[in-house]
Write a structure and sequence with these properties.
heterodimer; A: mainly alpha; elongated; B: mainly alpha; 2 helices; 84% helix; membrane (chain A); transmembrane helix (chain A); Phos_transporter (chain A); transmembrane (chain A); phosphate transport (chain A)
Amino acid sequence: MESFSLILAIVVVTALAFDFTNGFHDTANAMATTISTGALKPKVAVAMSAALNLVGAFLSVEVANTISKGLVDENGIRPEVIFAALVGAILWNLLTWLVGLPSSSSHALMGGLVGATVASAGFGAVHGDVLVTKVLLPAVAAPIVAGLAAMLATRFSYGIGRNAGGEATRKGYRAGQIASAGLVSLAHGTNDAQKTMGIITLALIAGGAIAPGSNPPTWVILSAGLAIALGTYIGGWRIIRTMGKGLTDLEPQQGFAAQTSAATAILASSHLGFSLSTTHVVSGSVMGAGLGRKGGVVRWSTATRMFAAWALTLPAAALVGAGAESVTDLGDWGTAAVAVFLVGASAVIWKISRREVVDHTDVAPDDAAEPAGVVTTAIAAVTPPPAGTVTENLTATIPAPATDPAPAAPAAPPAAAV
Amino acid sequence: MKIDWAALGSVFGVSLAFTVGLVALFTLGVNGLSRREKAAAQGGSAGLAVTGAYVCFAACAAAVAYGIYLIVAKP
Protein backbone atom coordinates (compact mmCIF):
# COMPACT_ATOMS: atom_id res chain seq x y z
CA MET A 1 0.00 0.00 0.00
CA GLU A 2 3.04 2.24 0.21
CA SER A 3 3.33 2.79 -3.50
CA PHE A 4 -0.16 4.10 -4.07
CA SER A 5 0.12 5.83 -7.38
CA LEU A 6 -2.33 8.40 -8.70
CA ILE A 7 -3.71 6.11 -11.41
CA LEU A 8 -4.37 3.46 -8.78
CA ALA A 9 -6.27 5.94 -6.66
CA ILE A 10 -8.29 6.95 -9.71
CA VAL A 11 -9.10 3.31 -10.47
CA VAL A 12 -10.23 2.66 -6.89
CA VAL A 13 -12.46 5.73 -6.86
CA THR A 14 -13.91 4.82 -10.26
CA ALA A 15 -14.53 1.25 -9.14
CA LEU A 16 -16.41 2.53 -6.12
CA ALA A 17 -18.40 4.83 -8.38
CA PHE A 18 -19.29 1.82 -10.51
CA ASP A 19 -20.29 -0.05 -7.38
CA PHE A 20 -22.57 2.85 -6.49
CA THR A 21 -24.26 2.83 -9.91
CA ASN A 22 -24.53 -0.93 -9.65
CA GLY A 23 -26.36 -0.48 -6.36
CA PHE A 24 -28.98 1.96 -7.57
CA HIS A 25 -29.32 0.25 -10.90
CA ASP A 26 -30.12 -3.06 -9.26
CA THR A 27 -32.34 -1.94 -6.39
CA ALA A 28 -35.18 -2.75 -8.75
CA ASN A 29 -34.17 -6.41 -8.90
CA ALA A 30 -34.85 -6.99 -5.26
CA MET A 31 -37.51 -4.46 -4.48
CA ALA A 32 -39.53 -3.46 -7.56
CA THR A 33 -42.24 -6.08 -7.12
CA THR A 34 -42.35 -5.58 -3.37
CA ILE A 35 -42.89 -1.87 -3.83
CA SER A 36 -45.37 -2.04 -6.70
CA THR A 37 -47.62 -4.49 -4.87
CA GLY A 38 -47.51 -2.33 -1.77
CA ALA A 39 -45.90 -4.94 0.47
CA LEU A 40 -43.36 -2.37 1.63
CA LYS A 41 -43.27 1.40 1.48
CA PRO A 42 -40.71 2.52 -1.14
CA LYS A 43 -38.30 4.12 1.33
CA VAL A 44 -38.51 1.20 3.74
CA ALA A 45 -37.90 -1.23 0.90
CA VAL A 46 -34.74 0.45 -0.34
CA ALA A 47 -33.43 0.86 3.20
CA MET A 48 -33.93 -2.84 3.87
CA SER A 49 -32.33 -3.77 0.56
CA ALA A 50 -29.36 -1.49 1.29
CA ALA A 51 -28.82 -3.01 4.72
CA LEU A 52 -28.95 -6.53 3.30
CA ASN A 53 -26.59 -5.58 0.49
CA LEU A 54 -24.12 -4.32 3.07
CA VAL A 55 -24.46 -7.50 5.11
CA GLY A 56 -24.07 -9.56 1.96
CA ALA A 57 -20.81 -7.84 1.12
CA PHE A 58 -19.28 -9.17 4.31
CA LEU A 59 -20.73 -12.66 4.19
CA SER A 60 -18.46 -14.27 1.67
CA VAL A 61 -14.70 -14.18 1.93
CA GLU A 62 -14.10 -15.43 -1.56
CA VAL A 63 -12.09 -13.14 -3.80
CA ALA A 64 -14.51 -12.53 -6.61
CA ASN A 65 -12.24 -11.83 -9.51
CA THR A 66 -14.20 -14.31 -11.59
CA ILE A 67 -15.42 -11.35 -13.58
CA SER A 68 -12.09 -11.10 -15.33
CA LYS A 69 -11.02 -14.69 -14.95
CA GLY A 70 -11.05 -16.47 -18.26
CA LEU A 71 -12.76 -13.72 -20.19
CA VAL A 72 -9.60 -11.77 -20.97
CA ASP A 73 -5.93 -12.53 -20.54
CA GLU A 74 -5.03 -11.25 -17.13
CA ASN A 75 -1.35 -11.13 -17.92
CA GLY A 76 -0.18 -7.61 -18.40
CA ILE A 77 -3.53 -6.06 -17.56
CA ARG A 78 -2.74 -2.49 -16.50
CA PRO A 79 -4.68 -0.22 -14.15
CA GLU A 80 -5.47 2.00 -17.14
CA VAL A 81 -7.28 -0.89 -18.83
CA ILE A 82 -9.42 -1.45 -15.74
CA PHE A 83 -10.10 2.26 -15.54
CA ALA A 84 -11.26 2.34 -19.17
CA ALA A 85 -13.46 -0.70 -18.57
CA LEU A 86 -15.09 0.98 -15.59
CA VAL A 87 -15.74 4.15 -17.57
CA GLY A 88 -17.64 2.12 -20.17
CA ALA A 89 -19.62 0.26 -17.51
CA ILE A 90 -20.57 3.38 -15.51
CA LEU A 91 -21.73 5.32 -18.55
CA TRP A 92 -23.87 2.43 -19.79
CA ASN A 93 -25.38 2.00 -16.34
CA LEU A 94 -26.26 5.69 -16.14
CA LEU A 95 -27.69 5.74 -19.64
CA THR A 96 -29.94 2.73 -19.09
CA TRP A 97 -31.01 4.22 -15.77
CA LEU A 98 -31.93 7.45 -17.54
CA VAL A 99 -34.29 5.65 -19.89
CA GLY A 100 -35.45 3.43 -17.02
CA LEU A 101 -34.46 0.11 -18.50
CA PRO A 102 -33.15 -2.73 -16.36
CA SER A 103 -29.90 -4.10 -17.78
CA SER A 104 -27.18 -6.21 -16.30
CA SER A 105 -24.43 -4.31 -14.49
CA SER A 106 -22.16 -7.32 -14.77
CA HIS A 107 -22.58 -7.38 -18.53
CA ALA A 108 -21.73 -3.70 -18.65
CA LEU A 109 -18.59 -4.35 -16.65
CA MET A 110 -17.61 -7.33 -18.78
CA GLY A 111 -18.31 -5.34 -21.94
CA GLY A 112 -16.11 -2.51 -20.75
CA LEU A 113 -13.38 -4.98 -19.86
CA VAL A 114 -13.59 -6.71 -23.24
CA GLY A 115 -13.50 -3.40 -25.12
CA ALA A 116 -10.60 -2.02 -23.14
CA THR A 117 -8.66 -5.25 -23.52
CA VAL A 118 -9.23 -5.35 -27.27
CA ALA A 119 -8.03 -1.76 -27.59
CA SER A 120 -5.04 -2.51 -25.44
CA ALA A 121 -3.97 -5.96 -26.59
CA GLY A 122 -6.00 -6.82 -29.69
CA PHE A 123 -8.77 -9.29 -30.34
CA GLY A 124 -6.52 -12.23 -29.51
CA ALA A 125 -6.66 -11.37 -25.82
CA VAL A 126 -10.42 -11.96 -25.60
CA HIS A 127 -11.71 -15.50 -25.36
CA GLY A 128 -14.68 -15.57 -27.68
CA ASP A 129 -15.97 -18.95 -26.55
CA VAL A 130 -15.98 -17.84 -22.92
CA LEU A 131 -17.90 -14.78 -24.03
CA VAL A 132 -20.59 -16.98 -25.55
CA THR A 133 -20.86 -19.54 -22.76
CA LYS A 134 -20.55 -17.16 -19.82
CA VAL A 135 -22.28 -14.05 -21.11
CA LEU A 136 -24.52 -14.53 -24.12
CA LEU A 137 -26.07 -17.90 -23.38
CA PRO A 138 -26.95 -17.06 -19.75
CA ALA A 139 -28.56 -13.83 -20.97
CA VAL A 140 -30.91 -15.87 -23.13
CA ALA A 141 -31.42 -18.67 -20.62
CA ALA A 142 -32.05 -16.56 -17.49
CA PRO A 143 -35.38 -14.98 -18.41
CA ILE A 144 -36.67 -18.26 -19.85
CA VAL A 145 -35.76 -20.28 -16.76
CA ALA A 146 -37.06 -17.75 -14.25
CA GLY A 147 -39.99 -16.75 -16.42
CA LEU A 148 -41.31 -20.27 -16.87
CA ALA A 149 -40.89 -21.02 -13.18
CA ALA A 150 -42.72 -17.83 -12.21
CA MET A 151 -45.48 -18.46 -14.74
CA LEU A 152 -46.18 -21.98 -13.54
CA ALA A 153 -45.96 -20.91 -9.91
CA THR A 154 -48.43 -18.09 -10.54
CA ARG A 155 -50.85 -20.41 -12.33
CA PHE A 156 -50.61 -22.85 -9.47
CA SER A 157 -50.99 -20.20 -6.83
CA TYR A 158 -54.16 -18.83 -8.39
CA GLY A 159 -55.41 -22.38 -8.90
CA ILE A 160 -55.01 -23.43 -5.27
CA GLY A 161 -55.85 -20.15 -3.64
CA ARG A 162 -58.91 -19.30 -5.71
CA ASN A 163 -61.16 -18.69 -2.74
CA ALA A 164 -58.52 -16.96 -0.66
CA GLY A 165 -59.01 -13.37 0.34
CA GLY A 166 -59.17 -11.06 3.26
CA GLU A 167 -56.72 -9.84 5.82
CA ALA A 168 -54.84 -13.10 6.39
CA THR A 169 -54.09 -13.51 2.70
CA ARG A 170 -52.89 -9.96 2.35
CA LYS A 171 -50.61 -10.22 5.36
CA GLY A 172 -49.32 -13.62 4.29
CA TYR A 173 -48.26 -12.55 0.82
CA ARG A 174 -46.78 -9.42 2.24
CA ALA A 175 -44.52 -11.41 4.56
CA GLY A 176 -43.66 -13.85 1.79
CA GLN A 177 -42.64 -11.09 -0.58
CA ILE A 178 -40.50 -9.39 2.02
CA ALA A 179 -38.69 -12.64 2.79
CA SER A 180 -37.95 -13.51 -0.83
CA ALA A 181 -36.94 -9.94 -1.68
CA GLY A 182 -34.59 -10.04 1.29
CA LEU A 183 -32.97 -13.16 -0.08
CA VAL A 184 -32.45 -11.53 -3.46
CA SER A 185 -30.88 -8.46 -1.79
CA LEU A 186 -28.55 -10.62 0.24
CA ALA A 187 -27.48 -12.63 -2.79
CA HIS A 188 -26.98 -9.42 -4.73
CA GLY A 189 -24.72 -8.03 -2.01
CA THR A 190 -22.54 -11.11 -2.01
CA ASN A 191 -22.31 -11.24 -5.80
CA ASP A 192 -22.03 -7.66 -6.91
CA ALA A 193 -20.13 -6.05 -4.06
CA GLN A 194 -17.69 -8.94 -4.47
CA LYS A 195 -17.27 -8.03 -8.12
CA THR A 196 -16.11 -4.54 -7.24
CA MET A 197 -13.82 -5.91 -4.56
CA GLY A 198 -12.38 -8.24 -7.17
CA ILE A 199 -11.85 -5.35 -9.59
CA ILE A 200 -10.15 -3.16 -6.98
CA THR A 201 -8.00 -6.05 -5.85
CA LEU A 202 -7.09 -6.80 -9.46
CA ALA A 203 -6.09 -3.17 -9.94
CA LEU A 204 -4.07 -3.15 -6.73
CA ILE A 205 -2.25 -6.27 -7.86
CA ALA A 206 -1.75 -4.89 -11.35
CA GLY A 207 -0.40 -1.66 -9.89
CA GLY A 208 1.91 -3.55 -7.58
CA ALA A 209 0.37 -2.16 -4.40
CA ILE A 210 -0.34 -5.61 -2.95
CA ALA A 211 1.15 -9.01 -3.63
CA PRO A 212 -0.46 -11.22 -6.26
CA GLY A 213 -2.88 -13.74 -4.84
CA SER A 214 -3.71 -11.77 -1.72
CA ASN A 215 -7.20 -11.32 -0.32
CA PRO A 216 -8.91 -7.96 -0.64
CA PRO A 217 -7.78 -5.65 2.18
CA THR A 218 -10.41 -4.80 4.78
CA TRP A 219 -10.77 -1.21 3.59
CA VAL A 220 -11.64 -2.53 0.14
CA ILE A 221 -14.37 -4.81 1.51
CA LEU A 222 -15.75 -2.02 3.70
CA SER A 223 -15.77 0.68 1.04
CA ALA A 224 -17.22 -1.60 -1.64
CA GLY A 225 -19.98 -2.73 0.71
CA LEU A 226 -20.78 0.86 1.69
CA ALA A 227 -20.77 2.09 -1.91
CA ILE A 228 -23.24 -0.53 -3.09
CA ALA A 229 -25.44 -0.03 -0.02
CA LEU A 230 -25.51 3.73 -0.53
CA GLY A 231 -26.37 3.30 -4.20
CA THR A 232 -29.14 0.90 -3.29
CA TYR A 233 -30.55 3.28 -0.71
CA ILE A 234 -30.61 6.21 -3.14
CA GLY A 235 -32.79 3.96 -5.25
CA GLY A 236 -33.01 3.81 -9.01
CA TRP A 237 -36.67 4.80 -9.07
CA ARG A 238 -36.85 4.89 -12.84
CA ILE A 239 -35.90 1.26 -13.16
CA ILE A 240 -38.05 0.27 -10.21
CA ARG A 241 -41.01 1.85 -11.96
CA THR A 242 -40.36 -0.05 -15.20
CA MET A 243 -39.76 -3.33 -13.42
CA GLY A 244 -42.65 -3.07 -10.97
CA LYS A 245 -45.29 -1.41 -13.14
CA GLY A 246 -44.01 -1.02 -16.68
CA LEU A 247 -43.63 -4.63 -17.74
CA THR A 248 -46.90 -5.89 -16.32
CA ASP A 249 -49.40 -5.26 -13.54
CA LEU A 250 -48.65 -7.33 -10.50
CA GLU A 251 -50.95 -8.52 -7.76
CA PRO A 252 -49.46 -9.68 -4.45
CA GLN A 253 -49.64 -13.36 -5.45
CA GLN A 254 -47.80 -12.63 -8.65
CA GLY A 255 -45.24 -10.50 -6.88
CA PHE A 256 -44.60 -13.33 -4.48
CA ALA A 257 -44.31 -15.93 -7.25
CA ALA A 258 -41.99 -13.67 -9.26
CA GLN A 259 -39.72 -12.89 -6.34
CA THR A 260 -39.59 -16.51 -5.17
CA SER A 261 -38.74 -17.67 -8.67
CA ALA A 262 -36.03 -15.01 -8.90
CA ALA A 263 -34.49 -15.91 -5.55
CA THR A 264 -34.54 -19.61 -6.38
CA ALA A 265 -33.06 -19.19 -9.84
CA ILE A 266 -30.31 -16.90 -8.60
CA LEU A 267 -29.32 -19.21 -5.77
CA ALA A 268 -29.60 -22.35 -7.89
CA SER A 269 -27.52 -20.86 -10.67
CA SER A 270 -24.75 -19.56 -8.47
CA HIS A 271 -24.73 -22.80 -6.49
CA LEU A 272 -24.74 -25.11 -9.52
CA GLY A 273 -22.13 -23.13 -11.40
CA PHE A 274 -24.13 -21.69 -14.27
CA SER A 275 -24.22 -18.12 -13.23
CA LEU A 276 -27.15 -16.02 -14.36
CA SER A 277 -27.46 -12.26 -14.19
CA THR A 278 -29.77 -11.07 -11.43
CA THR A 279 -31.33 -8.47 -13.69
CA HIS A 280 -32.20 -10.97 -16.40
CA VAL A 281 -33.60 -13.41 -13.88
CA VAL A 282 -35.83 -10.85 -12.20
CA SER A 283 -37.08 -9.34 -15.47
CA GLY A 284 -37.93 -12.81 -16.71
CA SER A 285 -39.72 -13.80 -13.55
CA VAL A 286 -41.76 -10.58 -13.52
CA MET A 287 -42.89 -11.23 -17.09
CA GLY A 288 -43.60 -14.86 -16.30
CA ALA A 289 -45.74 -13.85 -13.34
CA GLY A 290 -47.55 -11.40 -15.60
CA LEU A 291 -48.37 -14.16 -18.08
CA GLY A 292 -49.35 -16.61 -15.37
CA ARG A 293 -52.43 -14.76 -14.17
CA LYS A 294 -55.59 -15.13 -16.16
CA GLY A 295 -56.09 -11.86 -17.97
CA GLY A 296 -52.57 -10.75 -17.13
CA VAL A 297 -50.67 -8.89 -19.80
CA VAL A 298 -47.04 -8.24 -20.53
CA ARG A 299 -46.34 -4.96 -22.25
CA TRP A 300 -44.21 -6.30 -25.02
CA SER A 301 -43.19 -2.88 -26.27
CA THR A 302 -41.47 -2.21 -22.96
CA ALA A 303 -40.09 -5.74 -22.90
CA THR A 304 -38.73 -5.39 -26.42
CA ARG A 305 -36.98 -2.17 -25.49
CA MET A 306 -35.49 -3.94 -22.51
CA PHE A 307 -34.27 -6.86 -24.64
CA ALA A 308 -32.70 -4.38 -27.04
CA ALA A 309 -30.89 -2.78 -24.11
CA TRP A 310 -29.60 -6.20 -23.07
CA ALA A 311 -28.32 -6.91 -26.54
CA LEU A 312 -26.63 -3.51 -26.67
CA THR A 313 -25.09 -3.67 -23.19
CA LEU A 314 -21.98 -5.61 -24.09
CA PRO A 315 -21.11 -3.89 -27.40
CA ALA A 316 -21.96 -0.40 -26.11
CA ALA A 317 -19.91 -0.72 -22.95
CA ALA A 318 -17.15 -2.34 -24.99
CA LEU A 319 -17.14 0.56 -27.44
CA VAL A 320 -16.84 3.15 -24.68
CA GLY A 321 -14.25 1.01 -22.91
CA ALA A 322 -12.21 0.70 -26.09
CA GLY A 323 -12.43 4.41 -26.79
CA ALA A 324 -11.43 5.27 -23.24
CA GLU A 325 -8.53 2.84 -23.39
CA SER A 326 -7.16 4.27 -26.62
CA VAL A 327 -7.25 7.76 -25.10
CA THR A 328 -5.58 6.70 -21.84
CA ASP A 329 -2.90 5.10 -24.00
CA LEU A 330 -1.83 8.57 -25.08
CA GLY A 331 -0.34 9.26 -21.69
CA ASP A 332 -1.23 10.74 -18.34
CA TRP A 333 -3.10 13.64 -19.89
CA GLY A 334 -5.17 11.10 -21.80
CA THR A 335 -6.17 9.44 -18.56
CA ALA A 336 -7.04 12.81 -17.13
CA ALA A 337 -9.10 13.60 -20.22
CA VAL A 338 -11.05 10.35 -19.82
CA ALA A 339 -11.65 11.10 -16.15
CA VAL A 340 -12.94 14.56 -17.02
CA PHE A 341 -15.10 13.06 -19.78
CA LEU A 342 -16.57 10.54 -17.33
CA VAL A 343 -17.47 13.22 -14.81
CA GLY A 344 -18.81 15.52 -17.51
CA ALA A 345 -20.92 12.85 -19.21
CA SER A 346 -22.31 11.70 -15.85
CA ALA A 347 -23.23 15.28 -15.02
CA VAL A 348 -24.99 15.71 -18.37
CA ILE A 349 -26.96 12.50 -17.87
CA TRP A 350 -27.93 13.61 -14.39
CA LYS A 351 -28.96 16.98 -15.69
CA ILE A 352 -31.15 15.44 -18.38
CA SER A 353 -32.71 13.21 -15.74
CA ARG A 354 -33.86 16.30 -13.85
CA ARG A 355 -36.23 17.21 -16.67
CA GLU A 356 -38.51 14.42 -15.65
CA VAL A 357 -37.89 13.60 -12.05
CA VAL A 358 -38.87 10.11 -10.98
CA ASP A 359 -38.77 9.50 -7.27
CA HIS A 360 -40.25 7.28 -4.60
CA THR A 361 -43.67 8.84 -5.05
CA ASP A 362 -43.85 7.47 -8.59
CA VAL A 363 -43.44 3.81 -7.75
CA ALA A 364 -46.14 3.31 -5.14
CA PRO A 365 -48.98 0.87 -5.90
CA ASP A 366 -51.74 3.41 -6.57
CA ASP A 367 -51.93 3.23 -10.31
CA ALA A 368 -52.83 6.78 -11.25
CA ALA A 369 -50.35 7.23 -14.08
CA GLU A 370 -50.48 4.84 -16.99
CA PRO A 371 -47.32 2.75 -16.72
CA ALA A 372 -47.19 2.01 -20.44
CA GLY A 373 -46.13 5.52 -21.21
CA VAL A 374 -43.40 5.58 -18.61
CA VAL A 375 -40.51 4.48 -20.75
CA THR A 376 -41.79 6.30 -23.75
CA THR A 377 -41.81 9.60 -21.90
CA ALA A 378 -38.40 8.87 -20.41
CA ILE A 379 -37.04 8.24 -23.88
CA ALA A 380 -38.81 11.31 -25.21
CA ALA A 381 -37.02 13.29 -22.54
CA VAL A 382 -33.73 11.94 -23.76
CA THR A 383 -34.16 12.36 -27.48
CA PRO A 384 -33.52 16.11 -27.82
CA PRO A 385 -29.77 16.10 -27.00
CA PRO A 386 -28.57 14.30 -30.18
CA ALA A 387 -29.53 17.46 -32.05
CA GLY A 388 -26.00 18.62 -31.51
CA THR A 389 -23.46 19.21 -28.80
CA VAL A 390 -23.31 22.90 -29.60
CA THR A 391 -26.88 23.42 -28.51
CA GLU A 392 -26.47 21.10 -25.55
CA ASN A 393 -26.50 23.92 -23.03
CA LEU A 394 -29.48 25.51 -24.64
CA THR A 395 -31.63 22.41 -24.73
CA ALA A 396 -30.57 21.43 -21.27
CA THR A 397 -31.52 24.67 -19.60
CA ILE A 398 -34.42 26.16 -21.49
CA PRO A 399 -37.06 23.41 -21.26
CA ALA A 400 -36.41 22.88 -17.57
CA PRO A 401 -38.59 25.67 -16.17
CA ALA A 402 -41.38 24.78 -18.57
CA THR A 403 -41.57 21.08 -17.71
CA ASP A 404 -40.52 21.08 -14.08
CA PRO A 405 -43.63 22.30 -12.30
CA ALA A 406 -46.03 20.15 -14.30
CA PRO A 407 -45.25 16.48 -13.47
CA ALA A 408 -43.81 16.54 -9.96
CA ALA A 409 -45.84 18.82 -7.74
CA PRO A 410 -44.11 17.98 -4.44
CA ALA A 411 -40.72 19.60 -4.94
CA ALA A 412 -38.45 16.94 -3.54
CA PRO A 413 -34.93 17.80 -2.44
CA PRO A 414 -32.65 17.08 -5.42
CA ALA A 415 -30.38 14.66 -3.60
CA ALA A 416 -33.19 12.45 -2.39
CA ALA A 417 -34.86 12.03 -5.75
CA VAL A 418 -32.68 10.09 -8.13
CA MET B 1 -16.72 -24.18 -27.40
CA LYS B 2 -18.22 -26.30 -24.66
CA ILE B 3 -21.62 -25.40 -23.35
CA ASP B 4 -22.43 -26.90 -20.01
CA TRP B 5 -25.90 -28.14 -20.87
CA ALA B 6 -26.01 -30.32 -17.78
CA ALA B 7 -25.51 -27.35 -15.47
CA LEU B 8 -28.05 -25.30 -17.39
CA GLY B 9 -30.55 -28.16 -17.30
CA SER B 10 -30.15 -28.68 -13.59
CA VAL B 11 -30.51 -24.97 -12.89
CA PHE B 12 -33.70 -25.05 -14.92
CA GLY B 13 -35.08 -28.13 -13.19
CA VAL B 14 -34.16 -27.06 -9.69
CA SER B 15 -35.52 -23.54 -10.18
CA LEU B 16 -38.78 -24.84 -11.56
CA ALA B 17 -39.31 -27.49 -8.90
CA PHE B 18 -38.33 -25.28 -5.97
CA THR B 19 -40.31 -22.27 -7.12
CA VAL B 20 -43.51 -24.14 -7.84
CA GLY B 21 -43.16 -26.21 -4.68
CA LEU B 22 -42.48 -23.22 -2.45
CA VAL B 23 -45.24 -21.10 -3.90
CA ALA B 24 -47.69 -23.98 -3.63
CA LEU B 25 -46.74 -24.60 0.00
CA PHE B 26 -47.03 -20.94 0.81
CA THR B 27 -50.38 -20.62 -0.90
CA LEU B 28 -51.67 -23.59 1.08
CA GLY B 29 -50.43 -21.94 4.25
CA VAL B 30 -52.16 -18.69 3.40
CA ASN B 31 -55.32 -20.61 2.59
CA GLY B 32 -55.21 -22.24 6.00
CA LEU B 33 -54.89 -18.91 7.73
CA SER B 34 -57.69 -17.33 5.76
CA ARG B 35 -59.88 -20.30 6.64
CA ARG B 36 -59.23 -19.53 10.29
CA GLU B 37 -60.18 -15.94 9.60
CA LYS B 38 -63.47 -17.04 8.10
CA ALA B 39 -64.10 -19.56 10.87
CA ALA B 40 -63.40 -16.94 13.50
CA ALA B 41 -65.84 -14.59 11.82
CA GLN B 42 -68.51 -17.27 12.16
CA GLY B 43 -67.55 -18.01 15.74
CA GLY B 44 -65.94 -21.39 14.99
CA SER B 45 -62.35 -22.58 14.85
CA ALA B 46 -60.25 -24.36 12.25
CA GLY B 47 -57.57 -26.20 14.18
CA LEU B 48 -56.52 -28.57 11.45
CA ALA B 49 -56.24 -25.87 8.82
CA VAL B 50 -54.17 -23.69 11.12
CA THR B 51 -51.83 -26.52 12.05
CA GLY B 52 -51.41 -27.31 8.37
CA ALA B 53 -50.73 -23.67 7.65
CA TYR B 54 -47.99 -23.51 10.24
CA VAL B 55 -46.41 -26.71 8.89
CA CYS B 56 -46.40 -25.11 5.43
CA PHE B 57 -44.86 -21.89 6.72
CA ALA B 58 -42.24 -23.84 8.66
CA ALA B 59 -41.25 -25.62 5.46
CA CYS B 60 -40.98 -22.26 3.67
CA ALA B 61 -38.88 -20.86 6.51
CA ALA B 62 -36.61 -23.88 6.23
CA ALA B 63 -36.21 -23.20 2.51
CA VAL B 64 -35.29 -19.57 3.24
CA ALA B 65 -32.78 -20.74 5.85
CA TYR B 66 -31.28 -23.10 3.29
CA GLY B 67 -31.06 -20.20 0.86
CA ILE B 68 -29.17 -18.09 3.39
CA TYR B 69 -26.93 -21.06 4.07
CA LEU B 70 -26.16 -21.28 0.34
CA ILE B 71 -25.29 -17.58 0.22
CA VAL B 72 -23.05 -17.71 3.27
CA ALA B 73 -21.33 -21.00 2.49
CA LYS B 74 -20.68 -20.30 -1.17
CA PRO B 75 -17.41 -22.00 -2.00
